[in-house]
């Protein structure tokens, strides 16, 4: 039987799906590229915020049509949605044959092999304690859709306690993979043709804090950079402002293949809101942090994410946030509106902000950021950058990314030229700049 996996949500979910696909394939359940060709459909869901929950449910209902009318024999829902709503999900989604929580991905194989015997033993939903899940290892088979870029998950879970976040409940406390195992996987991925490794966790810069030996994220990044060589970009996503060290910044300035790119979600800039969020830094701390980053790393590119409409956010708090965005001039920035649910500590805070006002504030921030992004992109005109080719179009046009554009979350760079393949890295001179995207011509002798 062929298996189709639909992945929703974050990069960590993508890694889980790739490991699951490898696990099932080795057991005799090869992958299918389209749901209409599969006897098994697995939906790896996200349950982080309301929009993600809605998207997960819509996807389940859409793909359930293949269970009713197509070749699909088993419809399976995995990941964060069943983990978060395990008490109610069985009655809400009777179309689903089996639900597997965040620690139960490998139980899917047992379900497929045992069928009704498994459901009699376990029931139609299996959500063991998240910390009981085995950590991914370099030896595990991964089936990746992309050859040139790969996410490298360095830890599972989170030990912080932000009041708006459900991740510790869904994934458990932080559990870091060993440095040696991560480096081994980095080598494996590079040998398979990967040109960009993206290190991810819930709080990537917290890696190693739960391990004996005193190793830090700086030690890990150095080891990965050395193992894969200068021809492979190493990128770090999802850092935390409190665990970003000067040592890591010095390494970024030193290592040619460590992208001068930092993604540090700060969430807000009002001290009052930050305290209510459970974030243990102030606006002054953030100003100091970003000044230090820019001083230590020449041409560093900064990305952050923010939340508008958090309970208790006043107009004064919001104006502080707007002023912060104008002052910091981030290269990339995303904004979410606060998503409330009863299982969040922040649900019990006073003075909830109406959703319409939260959305208006989000739009106001993004309007400011669009102008900043356009101005920063204009400053790149005439400059030359390496670009990783990701997509070929008809004619002499391709799409790619520079080292200062992370996959899926930042803009893209249009490449005018031909004669290259997906996964090539070319040298580009920027000729056009837009709000979030760039375009340019390949420089003679384009292969980097």
TrEMBL record:
Which top-level group of life is the source organism from? Bacteria
Query: Reaction catalysed by this chain?
Result: L-aspartate(89)-[ribosomal protein uS12]-hydrogen + (sulfur carrier)-SH + AH2 + 2 S-adenosyl-L-methionine = 3-methylsulfanyl-L-aspartate(89)-[ribosomal protein uS12]-hydrogen + (sulfur carrier)-H + 5'-deoxyadenosine + L-methionine + A + S-adenosyl-L-homocysteine + 2 H(+)
Keywords for this protein: 4Fe-4S, Cytoplasm, Iron, Iron-sulfur, Metal-binding, Ribonucleoprotein, Ribosomal protein, S-adenosyl-L-methionine, Transferase
Gene Ontology process terms (BP): tRNA modification
Q: Which InterPro entries match?
A: Elp3/MiaA/NifB-like_rSAM, Methylthiotransferase, Methylthiotransferase_CS, Methylthiotransferase_N, Methylthiotransferase_N_sf, NA-bd_OB-fold, Ribosomal_uS12_MeSTrfase_RimO, rSAM
Q: Where does the chain bind [4Fe-4S] cluster 2?
A: 158, 162, 165
Q: What is its EC number?
A: 2.8.4.4
Major enzyme class: transferase
Can you supply one Gene Ontology CC term for this chain's record? cytosol
On whether Ribosomal protein is a keyword of this UniProt record, the answer is yes
Q: Does the keyword Transferase apply?
A: yes
Return the cofactor note field: Binds 2 [4Fe-4S] clusters. One cluster is coordinated with 3 cysteines and an exchangeable S-adenosyl-L-methionine.
Please give the family membership noted in the entry.
Belongs to the methylthiotransferase family. RimO subfamily.
Q: What role does this protein play?
A: Catalyzes the methylthiolation of N6-(dimethylallyl)adenosine (i(6)A), leading to the formation of 2-methylthio-N6-(dimethylallyl)adenosine (ms(2)i(6)A) at position 37 in tRNAs that read codons beginning with uridine.
Under which name does UniProt file this protein? Ribosomal protein uS12 methylthiotransferase RimO
